[in-house]
Fold this protein.
Amino acid sequence: MAHPEVARALEQDIIHALMTCLQATRSRCPGRAKQRRQRVMIRFEEVLAERVGQPLLLAELCELIGVTERTLRSCCTEFLGVSPSRYLLLRRLKQARLALREADPATASVAEIGRSCGFIRLRRFIGMYQTVFGETPSSTLRRLSGSEPGAAKFVSSE
């Protein structure tokens, strides 16, 4: 965890795991207000899952969830520690990373993958990607699937 980019990427995976837990457990929280905020976050994640790869404006997202922007911002800050817009951006970046890892470098391009994940400005996408993941999208695309820098290699004994 010597690199801040690695720490940020892990942080985003933890946030996604938190959202998955919220969806799965639906446990009773103390107080009606807390339960309502938890339901808002569950619905938030459901809407995002239904609209994977589709650009969403914050106003449209709030309408689909059935809350005001202020409520969604408050819930995201409480549960995720980031704004809904920031969370959406990080999800799109993660989606792009997965697509880059799975793509064939001989036929895929960073620009087309970026556009398919909702990024219009290529330079901005590349800059944000590099800030979050510590490498350029083209480096991710060129790397063989499953090989992470610094990742341990496990050999099966079978």
Remarks:
- The chain has two domains: 4-86, 92-142.
- The two ends are 31 Å apart (CA to CA).
